[in-house]
Write a structure and sequence with these properties.
The protein is mainly beta and 341 residues long. The chain is built from three helices and 21 strands. 5% of the residues lie in helices and 45% in strands.
Length: 341
């Protein structure tokens, strides 16, 4: 029985692997020993799948996947799995439509998240909106994906929806950026009464003083509601003489006002070390996009993109990860203030 409670559903068949006895990493996160779970050329016409998101549904699992086609253009594809590890990816990209049912395909789309709020599933991704910006669509049957108006102006990336309304409002994290491979970025939170109009933007947190997040940060998996607050796995980026390094970090946000950071781990939770993280189309990337959690056991499975080439998994449990974040927490004024000026 966990001391920290996950506020959510039971997922008894979630993918899981116990921590190997010879794992000497400091943080209580361990990699799946059979990583990567999705390799190169997984489907005809697709060279690589990575930075993708999954959700449990009726004892099985579905997901939206960033697929780099062989022509280099990224789109969002749909996939299904019995166990959350072995995936059957559709050969055709998701056929997005507008509210009238007419085709409404983005020019390109990448880095999706997939979050259930009430009885609707929302896919959120980055796309072209006269510059890099956020695209959104909703579905209830995984057959029809209906586009929603873009929530923000360019330039923005890494939109992550909260899995329930807070104070009656939809809430979403994002990372304002520029049109290129942004060398900066803080996480903000915005709210909406109807998933159409977004405002009341608040700063959540900026880059950290530690090396692994000293350049920029961005949202990762959808926040997990717990008895300690919203558990957020995010990515931190370091600039090195040989390019960027993307690592996974952890923070806990206030349950009623998520612009307030209660705890923020100064250490990374996972950084590129394995071959599938260090070597690939873009080396040295561990980019979290989704979690599956079991409220009964406190188990958490983390899905992350590796080296812009693979989908990998890691595991933790709610008691140990929250304790580690709290024990190694280092916050500053811009973390703990409400985030409005």
């Amino acid at each position: 029985m966990s001391n920290v409670k996950i506020i959510g559903s039971s997922v008894p068949n979630m993918p899981w692997q116990d921590r190997p006895a010879n794992d000497n990493h400091d943080a209580p996160i361990w990699r799946y020993t059979n990583n990567p779970v999705i390799g190169r050329n997984p489907v005809k016409g697709i060279a690589r799948i990575f930075n993708s998101a999954v959700v449990p549904v009726d004892g099985k699992f579905v997901g939206v996947f960033r697929a780099e086609q062989v022509n280099g253009i990224p789109y969002i594809y749909f996939g299904r799995s019995e166990d959350g590890i072995n995936w059957d990816i559709d050969e055709e990209k998701i056929p997005f439509v507008d509210k009238d049912g007419n085709p409404a395909m983005p020019i390109y789309a990448y880095d999706p998240r997939f979050v259930k709020v009430d009885d609707t599933y929302y896919a959120i991704w980055c796309q072209d909106f006269y510059g890099a910006a956020i695209g959104m669509a909703k579905t209830t049957d995984f057959k029809t994906f209906t586009r929603i108006e873009n929530p923000f102006l360019p330039f923005n990336r890494n939109a992550v929806l909260f899995p329930r309304k807070i104070n009656g409002k939809f809430m979403m994290l994002s990372r304002p950026s520029d049109s290129g491979h942004t060398p900066f970025g803080d996480i903000f939170v915005s709210e909406s009464p109807d998933m159409e109009y977004w405002g009341h933007h608040r700063h959540v947190m900026g880059k950290g003083s530690e090396w692994w997040e000293s350049l920029k940060i961005g949202g990762g998996a959808a926040p997990i509601e717990t008895s300690e607050g919203w558990l957020l796995f995010y990515h931190g980026v370091a600039g090195t003489c040989n390019g960027y390094v993307y690592s996974i970090g952890g923070a806990i946000l206030d349950i009623d006002n998520p612009s307030i950071v209660k705890y923020r781990c100064e250490n990374y939770l996972l950084t590129p070390e394995e071959w599938y993280e260090e070597r690939g189309f873009v080396p040295n990337v561990a980019f979290p996009c989704a979690t599956i959690c079991d409220a009964d056991t406190g188990r958490i499975a983390i899905y992350y993109g590796a080296a812009d080439s693979y989908v990998a998994m890691a595991f933790t449990n709610i008691d140990d990860i929250v304790a580690y974040i709290k024990d190694h927490s280092k916050t500053n004024t811009t973390d703990t203030e409400i985030g409005i000026r």
